From TrEMBL:
It holds the Pfam family SBP_bac_3. The keyword Signal applies. SUPFAM superfamilies: Periplasmic binding protein-like II (SSF53850). Coiled coil: none annotated. PROSITE patterns: PROKAR_LIPOPROTEIN (PS51257). Belongs to the bacterial solute-binding protein 3 family. This is Transporter substrate-binding domain-containing protein. InterPro entries: Solute-binding_3/MltF_N.
Length: 243
């Protein structure tokens, strides 16, 4: 057993001696990663991953539903311990440790009705178009910081899809693993994906607040997550959620 493994075991032993804490994971709905059942219980890929992380690490995790923007603020202050499904940004990295390795990746894409997406062949074709996006989300550079684009932010992906379906917005940006799943469940408006695809993926991480009182447990969770990724367990868990 290597030095890192002994260090992780030492952290776990210290937790058992002191009484293992329960870490709070703040998150919001984002199908198919995080969905709500009729009893308001979370389910989805991220939830399956968290269950396995809890079993592998011996660290108790509890979920708390919080709007995404507020969840980020709670991570910034240390009121919350963890977030899952996080894309990396320089601003977030000031108060979040991104536990390695990343566990999943999606591709940003633009969606709309056929007439709206047909002209989109390059990034330059976005100029002069109204584009919906989800507030506090990270997609790709230069889109995220491009003040020359006509961007309209809304709180949730579900609201964004409804606006495009009803013609209130002609285009939206989303991640393919989320929007493709949503459209596979229902697509009465016939929304389509544009041919233009940004070149860089949206890489997803489990993040730990740098101000969490349980920050020292980060390596334990990271080692458990690494084992899940390298063994193919995450890929197996993901298959039922892929359209």
């Amino acid at each position: 057993m290597g030095k890192t493994s002994w260090g992780v075991l030492g952290l776990l032993f210290a937790c058992w001696v002191q009484g293992a804490p329960t870490l709070t994971v703040v998150t919001d709905v984002w199908p198919p990663f995080r969905m709500l059942a009729q009893d308001d219980e979370f389910h989805g890929l991220d939830i399956d991953i968290l269950h396995q992380l809890q079993a592998r690490s011996g660290i108790a995790l509890t979920l708390k539903r919080v709007p995404w923007g507020r969840a980020l603020k709670q991570m910034q202050t240390g009121q919350a311990d963890l977030m899952i499904g996080l894309a990396h940004t320089r601003e977030r990295a000031a108060f979040i440790d991104y536990l390695q390795p990343p566990y999943y990746q999606c591709r940003p894409a633009f969606y709309g009705k056929a007439a709206a997406v047909a002209p989109l062949k390059t990034y330059a074709d976005l100029r002069g178009r109204e584009i919906g996006y989800v507030l506090n989300s990270a997609y790709f550079a230069p889109f995220d910081d491009d003040s020359q684009l006509d961007k309209h932010g809304v709180p949730t992906e579900d609201q964004l899809l409804r606006m495009v379906e009803r013609g209130h917005l002609s285009l939206m940006i989303g991640t393919d693993c989320q929007v493709d799943y949503a459209l596979s469940q229902r697509n009465d408006a016939g929304l389509m994906k544009a041919d233009y695809r940004p070149p860089h993926p949206v890489v997803l991480y489990l993040g730990m607040s740098k101000h969490s009182p349980h920050h020292a447990l980060g390596p334990v969770l990271a080692q458990a997550l690494q084992a899940m990724v390298e063994s193919g367990e995450v890929a197996t868990l993901a298959k039922p959620y892929q359209p």
